[in-house]
């Protein structure tokens, strides 16, 4: 009797932590969370009925055994169909229209730069300094050059702002004195999953097809004829390589 009571207390607790762990690990959507809840609730109900003796264990084991036998018999067919399914899935993904309004964000110490996938347009929010909380698009060139001086202590911020200035004010370098030489060293700071997803403008789960598609769209927008930037291209490549390596 005591063992049954302990089992009845332990089962809901275990079910709660199991659902929480699965939801956090796989970043489930609200709809997926509801489905997971229904499945766990059904399994929990069956477990309680078995513990209380209201449902013979054979009624649980018999369907599971039949399902296991079915899967073992069908496994060779599933394995043969898998390449065809992957090919169909890839073609379906390639045939989907390009998403509208998708954007990527590159965050540095001084700037949060946004790049629109559709148009290749760039804009950003100043995070620090004299012009904090102001949009780059609202700043005249003179103010942007002052911001450029303030960013000199952070290589990432310098390169991001240079990319914006190259696109919006192609002749800006002519207004900069020799003491303000443009920095040429690319900062190869450690990439993280969160940073890579933010750079590519993705959301979880970041699967291989999404990573490749976002990278291709971004690199098209960074073509030199569209005001491309070697620094931004390097960051985007680093983000793609990191996620693809992680997915292997």
Word description of this protein:
This protein has 248 residues and is mainly α. It has 2 domains: 2-95, no CATH class; 103-247, DnaJ domain (Helix Hairpins, Orthogonal Bundle), CATH 1.10.287. It has 8 helices and 3 strands, in the order αααβββααααα. It has helices at 2-26, 30-51, 58-95, 141-150, 155-168, 193-200, 208-221, 230-247, and strands at 103-107, 111-116, 122-126. The chain has a 3-stranded antiparallel beta sheet with strand order 1-2-3. A hairpin with a 3-residue loop joins strand 1 and strand 2 (111-116). Helix 1 (2-26) runs antiparallel to helix 2. The longest helix has 38 residues, at 58-95. The model is unreliable at 178-188 (pLDDT under 50).
Tag the structure with descriptive keywords.
2 domains; Helix Hairpins; three-stranded antiparallel sheet; 8 helices; mainly alpha; about 250 residues
In short:
α7 packs antiparallel against α8 (230-247).
Give the ordered list of helices and strands: HHHEEEHHHHH
Q: How many DSSP H or I helices?
A: 8
The span between the termini is 50 Å
Per CATH, which architecture of the largest domain? Orthogonal Bundle
Beta-strand portion reads: 5-15%
| Cα radius of gyration in angstroms | 27 Å
Shape, please?
elongated
CATH class of the largest domain: Mainly Alpha
Q: What's the number of structural domains?
A: 2
Percentage of residues in helical conformation: 55-70%
CATH topology of the largest domain: Helix Hairpins
Q: Count the strands?
A: 3
Q: What strand order characterises the main sheet?
A: 1-2-3
What class would the helix/strand composition place it in? mainly alpha
How confident is the prediction overall: mean pLDDT? 75
Reported for the largest beta sheet, the result is:
3 strands, antiparallel
**Low-confidence parts, pLDDT < 50 over ≥5 residues?**
178-188
CATH superfamily (homologous) name of the largest domain: DnaJ domain
């Amino acid at each position: 009797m005591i063992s049954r009571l302990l089992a009845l207390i332990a089962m809901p607790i275990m079910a709660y932590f199991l659902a929480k762990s699965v939801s956090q690990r796989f970043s489930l959507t609200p709809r997926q969370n509801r489905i997971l809840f229904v499945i766990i609730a059904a399994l929990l109900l069956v477990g309680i009925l078995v513990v209380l003796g209201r449902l013979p264990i054979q009624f649980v084991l018999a369907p599971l055994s039949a399902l296991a036998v079915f899967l073992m018999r069908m496994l060779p067919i599933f394995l043969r169909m898998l390449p065809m399914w992957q090919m169909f899935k890839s073609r379906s993904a390639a045939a989907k229209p390009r998403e509208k309004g998708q954007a990527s964000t590159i965050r540095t110490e001084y700037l949060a730069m946004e790049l629109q996938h559709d148009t290749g347009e760039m804009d950003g929010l100043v995070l620090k300094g004299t012009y904090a909380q102001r949009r780059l698009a609202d700043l005249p060139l003179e103010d942007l050059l002052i911001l450029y001086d303030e960013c000199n202590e952070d290589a990432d911020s310098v390169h991001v702002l240079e990319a914006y200035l190259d696109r919006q004010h192609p002749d800006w370098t002519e207004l900069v004195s020799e003491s303000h030489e443009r920095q040429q060293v690319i900062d190869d700071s450690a990439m993280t999953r969160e940073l890579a997803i933010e750079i590519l403008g993705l959301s979880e789960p970041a699967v291989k097809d999404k990573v490749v598609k976002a990278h291709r769209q971004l690199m098209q927008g960074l073509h030199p004829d569209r005001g491309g930037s070697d620094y931004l291209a390097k960051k985007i490549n680093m983000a793609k390589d990191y996620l693809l390596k992680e997915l292997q």
